[in-house]
Amino acid sequence: MLRTAPRNREAMLLNLGAVSNVPTRAQTRRARLCFAAVALSMLLNFFLAFLNTHGVAMNEGKVTIIQIAVTGLSGCLLLTRVAQARAVPIITLAVLIVTLIVMNLIKTPNPKAFYDCLIVPLYIGVGASAYGVRDRWMSWLFWFVVIIVAMEALLPTIYTAIVNAGDYFRATRAWVASTAANKATQDGLYAGAYRGGGTSAFSMIDHRAGGPFLEPLSLGYFSVLMTIYFSGMHKGGFFYRAIAVIACLVLSMASDSRAASGLLLLCAPLLFARLKLPSILMWVASPILLFIAWFYYTHHTGDGGELYYRISLTFDGLAGSNVWEMLVGDVNTEHANDSGFLYLTYNFGLVGVFLAVFYYSGLFTRQRGSNPSLFICFSLLATLTLLFGGALLSIKSASLMGFLVGMAGRAPEEVVEDEEEGEDLPQPLPLGRRPAKMLA
Fold first, then answer.
1. Nearest to 96 by CA among 388, 379, 386, 357
2. Tens of pLDDT along 168-219?
3. pLDDT (average), residues 26-49
4. Nearest-angstrom CA–CA distance, 37 and 75
5. Is the CB of residue 388 less than 8 Å from the CB of residue 404?
6. What is the CA radius of gyration of the chain?
7. 0.70 cut: is pTM over it?
8. What is d(CA 245, CA 226) in angstroms, rounded to the nearest whole number?
9. I need a labelling partner for 57 at 20 to 30 A (CA). Which of 34, 236, 267, 351 fits?
């Protein structure tokens, strides 16, 4: 019997044994859901602050329940498609989970630690399973953030009328509610919006911008993540990507995040050139950055200012513990809320911290053929954010970080098989066979 020739180019390529990188309709629908879940996770506090400003009162309990629900819905996306998972990331994640369980059994149980420590791996899974995410979707999300930040900078009264961050954080954060209102919260901004002296270090605007993230650190880290995306992952033209990266730098400067701005300037040229650095650098980037921070901490003299203070929170907490105590996570947690490394050391132990950072950076989940330079940048960012606080473990930063790490981990030549019912794609013929000519 003669075979009828395929009626479209994709089917013909498949019959000829070629590989198609064009996502199916089902894969595009799934990618759209994954992207929507990440966008909602990133902007959740913005939407809740909007509701709080306009008559729907929020409190810490409500925010916690809503955040868990959104994260759970994002996690449900992993149940709708069984991704091809390799043994190494599964075993590593299992080790981290078992370590968390053991630490909670031998210490004071803290269920929140499971959420904090596993939220990045969850969104890595969402990103890895979202085949066919469009560049224009990511661009829409980025320019929405730019518009909100521009509104905050140029029309601050309108911005605070839409979302009053000061009222929102007083209603939903116990540490803000327990302190006296300052000028920033009275102006409808994040409590730390005004740095010492009342102006941004970059003198762009009169305060540290937070945009839709409501606080400056998350905006700074967002700018680095989107720099990594536009420089190393976006498929658009050079000039559009360059304009987007310049906009990222402006966002980082508006947030007055100097560490983020420095990392942005390091990552952008490296990724724009699409250089593939040796894979070994992925594994040593984080330890080298930590060593530099430790060297600065131990050799600095005089008043170190805010940079020294932020770094000292981590190393002061570790200084009072011997090697065994650090291995089992018995460290001073007085400043654990201000140091992600202290928090992770308490929950994972010293060895588990590096396993967690490597996992968050995609080193265990990346496929062979993906660009190691991307994961060097992810590793540097993860280390930096954990040194200067716990923003990486919040839903605002963890969702985008995990999503991009998961997307970047797929090799360019990877074939994604569609597993949804109702998709009847033609199967490739054995090598050497060609489709019959179409009947006249």
1. 357
2. 988 888 777 777 677 888 888 887 777 765 455 555 677 888 999 999 989 9
3. 92
4. 9
5. no
6. 23
7. yes
8. 8
9. 34
On the 0-12 / 13-18 / 19+ scale of CB atoms within 10 A, 247 is: buried
Structure tokens at 319: 């200084």
Confirm if 217 and 389 have CB atoms less than 8 A apart: yes
- Mean pLDDT (whole number) for 106-111: 86
Structure tokens of 2? Answer: 């003669």
Give pLDDT tens digits for 386-420: 988 888 899 999 999 999 999 998 755 443 443 44
